[in-house]
Design a protein that fits this description.
The chain is mainly alpha-helical. It has one domain. Helices cover 83% and strands 0% of the residues. The two termini are 14 Å apart.
């Protein structure tokens, strides 16, 4: 269990800032969309350093990874889960959190429904970035014992 917690924290504090940096870089430098911030990309990154490196990973850790690990822990007591089940559970947690945030905090459906459905592609990538390392670095080692 200690290995699972450590790898969750390391993955969260590595992958979320990298994905955030890449998203902002593509949006501001490649697409030249400066609607969020009128300055340069590096000024924007300096302004949002605390959010990208601390706040966003902590929120993701609490809202997504904690429920995922609790569900996996409960279900693996009864039967062994394969990789497909873990991918589906993580994906459903991501969709559930997004729908709940969209219903109660922000209106993600306002511009159009297509934007909401474009999130699914991003969810698949995030699911693969988190579940595959957890499965191969934590669960496979535990299963082989």
């Amino acid at each position: 269990m200690a290995r699972r917690i450590l790898i969750n924290i390391v993955l969260c504090f590595l992958i979320i800032p990298i994905l955030s940096f890449t998203r902002d870089l593509i949006k501001m430098e490649v697409l030249q969309d400066h609607s969020k911030f009128s300055g340069t990309f590096w000024e924007y990154q300096r302004m949002n350093t605390a959010t990208n490196l601390l706040v966003a990973p902590l929120i993701f850790l609490i809202l997504v990874l904690l429920p995922y690990n609790l569900i996996i822990y409960r279900l693996e007591k009864r039967k062994q889960l394969n990789l497909n089940n873990k991918l589906l559970i993580f994906f459903l947690i991501m969709v559930s959190v997004t729908v709940l945030i969209g219903l109660f905090i922000t209106n993600i459906w306002y511009p159009d429904w297509g934007l909401f459905f474009s999130y699914f592609f991003a969810f698949v990538l995030v699911t693969l970035f988190f579940v595959l390392p957890l499965h191969y670095w934590v669960d496979r080692k535990r299963l082989s014992k």
